[in-house]
Design brief:
The protein is built from 16 helices and 10 strands. By secondary structure, it is of the alpha+beta class. The longest helix has 18 residues, at 260-277.
């Protein structure tokens, strides 16, 4: 184990340190793409452009804005309004140079600019022509060209540079209208990558144990809670209010109405007041990020099940079992009276610990029992969850997800289109060619009321946990 990994292990809770193996398998995190990033990132449309001396630029832009309206989308804010002849894409430069007085405009030190007027569908040509005819400097030689332009903003500087060479001068404004903000992805990836290999190694370990015990497929799930110093914790705020003399019925309302920024500011003010009163006090030790395992579950779809002609118990999927164990811990902290479970011949919800490692984690208390189910928790899976599990993960309000093996035929998190015959079988499948259709990308869909960041964990040093490509993980 490397020195850097030893430092990571020191920040783990005792239960995690007891379970993880001596050798941690190292991998790389690759952020998941959204469906919009893969399908709509290059949507082309036609736009009108014109050219005029520099001193008439403002007049022409005013005319274009009056016709297009104030809608920012119609004005294509990610495209530069004006472009020098020398900055045009090569194919546009050669095309416009041979039209009208273009050769004179493109030679020497030209004081002319090409001006983007707006989308062709939004600007009536006759009204645009009349408007340009009112400008003294170009009424005798009005030029209106039509060019293809990207209708959506680029998601990276590289993409902006490429589009500038292919279409029109494009600006990257360090945002992503098609998915999570790039800075958020970069910052969160650096945080998660520090110990992702630990949790993925543990997920592989429990997946193999579940397979060897005959409980299910080699699929494992780990749920953790990450405590970052200085990060606002709504649950802790509620607990702090509960220690005051306020009425118990008012405590939750007070805490929930409190703005997070106000809570942080009040905390900072209290610290400053203490500092003024005791300048000689010793500096506090710098707080470190810590992580604690909340749930550990292997696949149990074959527990008390016949394998012949069956697909297993869907309630025994690793992700569902792990989420249910988190819920049981939350119930346990409320000290509810235990009801004697009925004696059943078959229990569909296989959410009780079946392995020794699962029991060890299950016996430990929840590190933050006041939150909503899986809010602000992280899920690590050996395989991409099926559509059923993916929706359960969203409904549980999971904060982040990491998985290793993609399931192109049945997975619910990847956004890539599903190719045909993805199972790789040398003989035709029983129900004809498998695959086809679009990926769902459920981790980030604007139609849903919850979204989260997701990554694929890539490694060449860990044994692949092979399952049937048609399996719903």
């Amino acid at each position: 184990m490397s020195d850097s990994m030893k430092e990571v292990v020191e920040t783990l809770d005792p239960v995690s340190r007891r379970l993880i193996p001596a050798n941690i398998d190292i991998g790389t995190l690759v952020p998941l793409k959204t469906t919009l990033e893969l399908r709509d990132n290059l949507t082309l449309g036609l736009a009108y452009i014109t050219r005029a001396p520099t001193r008439y630029t403002n007049d022409i832009v005013t005319i274009a804005r009056a016709l297009a309206g104030d809608d920012a989308a119609k004005n294509l804010p990610h495209l530069r309004r004006c472009s020098k002849p020398v900055d045009l894409a090569p194919h546009l430069k050669s095309q416009f140079m041979n039209e009208g007085n273009g050769r004179a405009i493109h030679t020497g030190k030209s004081n002319w600019l090409y001006i983007l007027l707006g989308p062709k569908d939004e600007l009536p040509y006759d009204e645009l022509l009349r408007g340009l005819a009112s400008v003294d400097g170009i009424r005798d030689d009005i030029f209106i060209g039509i060019i293809p332009v990207p209708l959506l903003a680029p998601t990276s500087q590289v993409q902006a540079n490429l589009w500038s060479q292919q279409f029109w001068q494009t600006v990257y404004r360090k945002n992503n209208p098609l998915g999570p903000h790039p800075s958020n992805i970069c910052r969160t990836t650096s945080v998660v990558s520090r110990d992702a290999s630990v949790w993925m190694t543990l997920a592989h370990q429990v997946g193999r144990k579940s397979r060897d015990a005959g409980l299910g497929e080699p699929i494992g799930a780990v749920i953790i809670k990450r405590n970052i110093p200085g990060k606002y914790d709504h649950a802790k705020t509620e607990r702090s209010y509960s220690t005051t003399e306020a009425n118990p019925s008012d405590v939750v309302d007070i805490a929930r109405s409190q703005d997070p920024h106000e809570v942080e500011e009040q905390g900072n003010n209290d610290t400053n007041d203490d500092a003024v009163g005791s300048e000689t006090s010793a500096p506090e030790a710098e707080a470190k990020e810590t992580t604690q395992i909340v749930a550990l579950a292997g696949d149990a779809r074959w527990y008390q099940q016949e394998k012949t002609g069956r697909t297993g118990n869907p309630m025994g999927h690793a992700a569902l079992r792990a989420i249910s164990m988190v819920a049981q811990k939350l119930v346990r902290t409320e000290n509810r009276p235990k009801n004697k479970p009925p004696i059943m011949e078959f229990e569909a919800f296989q959410d009780g610990p079946l392995l020794g490692d699962e029991q060890t984690v299950f016996d430990a208390e929840h590190p933050c029992p006041d939150g909503y189910l899986c809010h602000d928790l992280e899920l690590y899976l050996t395989h991409e969850p099926c559509v059923m599990c993916a929706m359960a993960i969203l409904h549980s309000r999971m904060g982040r997800i990491v998985f290793r093996h993609r399931m192109p035929l049945t997975g619910g998190m990847s956004s890539e289109d599903r190719g045909y015959d993805m199972c790789g079988s040398p003989i035709p499948c029983e129900n004809g060619p498998c695959g086809g259709g679009r990926g769902l990308g459920l981790h980030w869909r604007k139609e849903l009321n919850w979204s989260m960041l997701g990554w694929e964990w890539e490694t060449d040093t860990v044994e692949r946990l092979t399952v049937d490509p048609h399996l719903h993980a």
